[in-house]
Amino acid sequence: ARTQTLTVTGSADGSAYTALSASAARRFDPATGNAVTITFPQAPVRYLRVQITANTAWPAAQLSGLSVYATP
Asked: Which residues pair with 18 in a beta bridge?
């Protein structure tokens, strides 16, 4: 397993970003498919940015997929 520290930000216009999920360590474990779920309040954004600032397994970021869902 590895831990990555990441922040999720969002923007309506692609210029001004605000934090949707504060920087936190997230555990990626092969036993659970390396899946991590991050929830945050509904926000009127069109663009998302994931910033990874640390990774305990490798000196680089690792991200293979991103899915975003909203409830109507």
From this structure: 10
Beta partners for residue 8, in sequence order: 21, 50
4, with CB counted inside 10 A (0-12, 13-18, 19+), is: buried
Chain center to CA of 47: 13
Place of tokens 């923007």: 11
CA distances from 17 to 2, 4, 59 (A): 27, 21, 26
In which band, very low, low, confident or very high, does the pLDDT at 72 lie, cut at 50, 70 and 90?
Answer: confident
Read off the tokens for 23.
């920087």
SS3 32: helix
* pLDDT tens digits for range 14-48: 999 999 999 999 999 999 999 999 999 999 999 99
